[in-house]
Amino acid sequence: MEMLSKLEELVLISVLKLGPEAYGTSIYAEIVRLTGRDVTVSNVYFPLERLVRRGHLSAVHGEPTPRRGGMGKRYYRITKYGLAVLRENRAVSLAAWRGVAALIKAAEA
Amino acid sequence: MRPPRLAACLLKIMARRADGSYLGDLEEIYRLKAEYLGPAAADRWFRREALRSLPGFARESIRWRIIMLKHYLKTALRAFRRDKTFTVLNMAGLTLGLAGFILIMLWARDEVGWDRFHRNAASIHRVESNVVTQPGPLGPFLKGRYPEILDAVRYSWLPPLVIDRGNEPLQENGFVLADSSFFSMFSFTFLAGDPAAALAEPDSVVLTEAAARRYFGNEDPVGKGLTVEHKFDVRVTGVVRNPPGNSDFQFGILGEFRILRRFQPRYETHWGNHQYLTFVRLAEGVSAETVGAKIAHIVSDHDSEQTSPLTLVPLLKIHLDRDGARTDVSTFVIVALLILAVAAVNFINLTTARSARRAREIAVRQVSGARRRQLAGQFLSEAVLVSLAAFVLALIVVVLVLPTFNAVVGKTFRPADLVRPAVILPLLAAAAAIGLISGTYPALLLSAFRPAGLLKGDGPNAGRTAGKAPIRKILVVVQFAISTTLIISTLFIGRQTSYLRGFDTGVHKENVLVLPAKEPLVKSREAFLAALTGRPGVVNATFASGLPSSVANVADGIGWEGMDPALKPTWDFVAADDRYLDTLGLTLVQGRNFSGNAPAKDVPAFIINEKAAARMGIPNPVGKRFSLWGWNGTVIGVVKDFHFQPLREDIRPLLLFVMPGIYQQILVKISPAGEPLPAVIDRVREVWNRFAPGTPFEYGFLDAAYEDLYRGEQRMVREFKSFSFLGIFISCLGLIGLAAYVTEQKRREIGIRKILGASPAGILRQINGKFLVPILVSNLIAWPAGFVFMKTWLRGFAFHLPIGCDVFLIPTAVSLILALLTVSLQSLKAVRENPARALKYE
Q: Which pTM was predicted?
């Protein structure tokens, strides 16, 4: 299975968390909240599209609203394949991070 | 609350491909930020976002372009495979056109770049007066005397000499001499030896690679010696790379100029003898005219007999200023472009004709959302693809044809020459450009099809008013006009050239051997001639200063009794002997031949030709006083005018007198009647070896020398022949394609006609009729074009054939017949087809 980049991983997780409300702006807001950094929108948007292209996400068009200057929203949903990849990556992360907190503490001492 | 306009516009432009949700997202966030952080901060953030997203968009855009290109490539290949005949025709036409273009440009570059490789080429000039060669003292005189002239170098050819290295003697035909600073003025790559010191010592020589190999094999020649004419030694001080083909400096051995004293002892002081090329290098920014004006009178100052002023001719102009060389180059470049035009026109025609087959594909694409620009882009890229593929094929064709081409044009191109970036890149660009240009019209046409009619099966041109496409007919006219003009030109040039070669020059040039007049032979002239003419098969022999086919000696310092002193005649001359007239079969119309062979210096007797006599204005010049170079004598005879120059020139006044010092050739008239030629030649060789032992026997034929005069024209004929053939061939290719298209269109109509009882002949006539008019029109264009072209070319010839009618009628007939044949062959298939099959296709 493929290894996701950190950003891709975060994006997928955000989509999962946001459920039916997962669209560009909300995913962006979530990522800003998670990382606490001033992420660029395009740094979220392009990976989002990439994930759609590679089949991790599926996208659906919404109704236009005046708030967005007349553009509709694009809603993202995670696919079965995306879920599988996410599960795999989580397993790898968990395995990698097990016991690392103690190591960091020891290294800092 | 609106986001900053500039940034928003920028984003809109970039995000055109993507759907609008990105922009919507940004705007939403913008509003939030404006609410919470204030408009200023929001604006700043927005602008930064816009900039930051640029690279992403760029990457995406490139990605998509590549994907589309891959798709277009696949489509193009599929289209080509489906329609193999058309693709082959198209490619063939373009390949041939490009190949011809490449070859011509290769040749033209060579000609235009003549002697351009010298570092100082731009500032080097040749000193000329009414003749190209100048007196010996001029070079050193100019050097050091004028601040504008940085250097002056003389260059001279020696006659063929025998070079000896202790083993067998060899004849060197490329022994030249030059002043010691030759290699600092002209750039030749040294493979051995020091360029600065190469010609420093007297009697030092520099060899070319080829000469070094010839005389020394694989040994290093530097420091070694060679014996010249068994008389004196020279020392090799360097080896240079062989001079490139496009240079006037072709030599095997280049020696230091002072070696000349052994051949012409007075060269340092004698201002009357014009024998040496003199080159000067001017300082920066100095104009040739100003310097020319300064030095114009130098020769006439030192020798009052010579009056023509000196001028400077730039080195880079010398080659192209030759007899008609510049017209040659322009002509062929134009022909190359014309051939390319024919090929391009072909491409356009064939592609548009085939468009019907793509109709359905186009319709589907349009319905699937392709915009016009995209469709046009697709077809344009197809055209460029074909054109680049044709380019690669053309290169292969060129490499294959290169040996034949070299033989025809007399150059030595190697495949390696093609691959140099300076050569290949412009050609590649040209090929791509051709693709773009030829592809534009079809691309525009095809992308403008309307889907509704196509899908219904009405035919691709339903709903379009330009279905008839008169432009296609125009293109056929253009193609055939160009090709027919080429044929006319070829015919005429061919005629003119055979006319020139068969022309009666007034000289009996058959069966005349030409031998070099070596010194021992000149010394024992009488005995040699007596021995020669005694042998069976030898009729007569004469010593002369040049071949009667192209006399290259000119004299001023001429005067005669009663001459208008304002006249300063410059006449051609030949130094001959008492056997000259007889050997060459020339007739005297007045007076007598030389009696005896006393040099004109002692016994000033002169024979002139009729033109000269007319110039003198005296009806009976025999016996009148005549002087040349201070020798006062009389005219003893007038010879009938004969052609001693190539037929490009009118007959000029000619002077004959005796001057053994400048004999260059021996002309031997033999009569092989009853004697086999090789036997007679052997006898001549025998006599030669008796009088000039140790000198290798070399001979040539006079009629071959005459042939050589027109080598340029013969080459032109061959080249024009190939190009006409090429042009007609490509045009016919195009015609095949068009005919096939028309036939295809008319399948149903033909079927119906057959059922109604029309005969195959009648149908053929109808189809052919469509093409008849364009062909006739193209001939009407070709006639005046060909006429103008021929008239311009003929300006270079004093003697020429009149331009006859058949030169125009034959090509017209040929093109008509060819066209009709081609079209008929194509339509025959449809005509013979079972009409039921044609009508079934609903």
A: 0.70
